[in-house]
Amino acid sequence: MASGNSRGRRLLPVNAWWLGDPAERFWLEITNRQDIGHDLLAPKVNDSGAEYWSYSLVQYVRPGDFVLHWDKNHGPGIVGYSRVVGDPFSSTITWQSRGTYGRQRTASGPEPAWQAPLGGYQRLKVPLKQERLRALEPAIRQVRDLLAASVEGPTYFPFAISEKRPVRAAQGYLTKLPRALVEAIPLLSELHQSAASEPYEAESSTHIRASGKKSSSSGYGRQQNTARRRAVERYAVDLVMNHYGSLGYEVDDVGDRCPWDITARRDGTELHIEVKGSTTEREVIDLTEGEVRHAEDSSACLIVIDRIEIDSELRCSGGRWRVWQSWTPARDSLVPTAYRYPLPNGGISGPPPG
């Protein structure tokens, strides 16, 4: 059971099994509200005046987390997702005659509530309707069973599964969506890509996989493999430096002192190059505030080399090049805090021409 203070909030006692695992950043809001993606908002107590786990979970979301939205009115099913853009805080809620969040009661005055701001709402290209979800019941059941075997106590699983009824959304407002479930549902691959982060790639982490294989460590623990990540980054930078050197540029690795990685000079011109390397196929990259501001203020070139192979001795090979030669990240595409930037269309395949 987890309780205590976090960012000035008193966390109500729930079984916070995901704490300590930075990859467990997914939630499911189950609602019939009309303003989906605006915020999370739930009363502090239920109709009986008691604290309720599904309302209390709002306190546990953190900036950068992803909230999927199950719309009871249209589908029903998962229609999109948002990012948490600020810490949860105490607020108030006014219930309507047919409660915006699912209760049926007469209208009331403001009641104490938990609220968390959301932003960047994205509709899924293909909504995950309940009918499709039911076709995936074996995979969903497997994830549920693996999680239950790994976690002592309630898991706040987002879907109800029984022998008498097909899979359906759980009874509640906010539920915890395990990362393994995001990976197990093909229609959520868009979300999985948006949440990708190099330090927590699957190859360098330990967690329960949708395949059912479980690591030797505690079920949902993950560890950052710093040496592996640095080897991939070093390999990508060296590839780019060697390429520009072969084209007659004077190249300098400036990543330890500048908000870009490589300066390349030739014929009186200077090119600033941002390099991102990855062992997985990337449609999303991490950017620092310094990298974003430099690309906004100066002409920059973005080179992403993904699908890099790495062996047990940290030797790298291969990789797919993509280049954005006049690159400025759009601010409205950035996720606050540790920015995650969806790569735009139009990247040139292969190394840039001389």
Top keywords for this entry?
single chain; 354 residues; alpha+beta; ph1033 like fold; Trna Endonuclease, Chain: A, domain 1; six-stranded mixed β-sheet; 7 helices; elongated
How would you characterize this protein structure?
This protein is α+β, with helices and mostly antiparallel strands. It is elongated, with a radius of gyration of 23 Å. The N and C termini lie far apart (60 Å). It is built from seven helices and 21 strands.
Give a short account of the largest sheet: 7 strands, mixed
How many structural domains does the protein architecture include?
Answer: 2
Instruction: Flag low-confidence runs.
Output: 1-9, 97-104, 197-224
Please give the alpha-carbon distance between the first and last residues: 60 Å
CATH class of the largest domain: Alpha Beta
Structural class: alpha+beta
Shape: elongated
Fraction of helical residues: 10-25%
Quick one: how many beta strands?
21
**Contiguous helical run count:** 7
CATH topology of the largest domain: ph1033 like fold
The radius of gyration is: 23 Å
- How much is the average pLDDT? 80
Q: What string, H for helix and E for strand, traces the elements in order?
A: EEEEHEEEEHHEEEHHHEEEEHEEEEEE
Strand content: 25-35%
